[in-house]
Amino acid sequence: MLSRVADNLYWFGRYVQRAENTARLINVHANLLLDLPRNVTVGWAPLLEITGADAAFRAAGGQATEDNVVRFTLMDERNSGSIFSSLNYAREIARVSRDCLPREAWERLNDLYLFVQERGERSVTRARRQDFLQGVINGAMTTVGVLTSNMSRDVGFQFLRMGTNLEQADMTTRILDVRSSRLFQADASLTPFDNIQWMSVLKSLTAYQMYRRHVRARVNGPGVLRFLLQDRQFPRSVSFALATIGSTMPFLPPSRKVERAIERTKALIADANIGSLLSQPDGLALFMDEIQVGLGQLDDAIAESYFRS
């Protein structure tokens, strides 16, 4: 397979996963604001920090109001991580890589892109937002389902899996970083509502039901962190995502650089003392930064080993 095609499939998986996760995040953040008392003000700025769009938003020169942040995260082409931008990039990749992707996947993705293009601007308001975001989630999951069901498990599929899971690991750590540590420390008035926010962390990743099933305990910080970082069975946990990336390696040309990057990050997470991290003022934030660095190094190793001449 040409490195250009492999690169396209890798990023196709990342962009589709990014669109789905961003839609979930906006939906759950709106519900979190409804769950908290009226006198507790979280605002919409944390959403920009989680998605890494805060610098682009400041450059665009707007106030972090609900409408501005939601529009920037949903539809703004100046935001490379917006739902519309992510689907636009994925659609362009699918257009030039049709020979590698099932025709049905192209059709589902194109339907989703046209749905977002047609209804996105009208869905910024609260009245229409939830149905629109659910449509994005359903469309992204349908696209992934078609790929999983209809695509041969060849080299191209392995690169697609690699991109999808690296994007999921990245989003999980971003949500944990902002919601579980920096957001709490930024506003002391949120301390009495820690459990509500930990529940929001789980719901942002559609993990609440599985957490209650496997952990069998009330929602609390250490339990949520262990589940989303170290659980090896839940598909949105960081450990599961890294293990899935590792499982693609036997199907690809050997790369010790990629294997070492995977093992380093897995070991970092497996050896973490969650209780100790939470007891230190900046312990969790610094640890999440370490994981983010590890994921960035893994992305660089993949690019250098397979995509760059």
Automatic annotation (TrEMBL):
PANTHER family: BLR5612 PROTEIN, SLL1039 PROTEIN. Signal peptide: none annotated. It comes from Stagnimonas aquatica. It comes from the Bacteria. This is Alpha-E domain-containing protein. InterPro entries: ATP-dep_Glu-Cys_Ligase-2, DUF403. Residues 1-307 form the DUF403 domain.
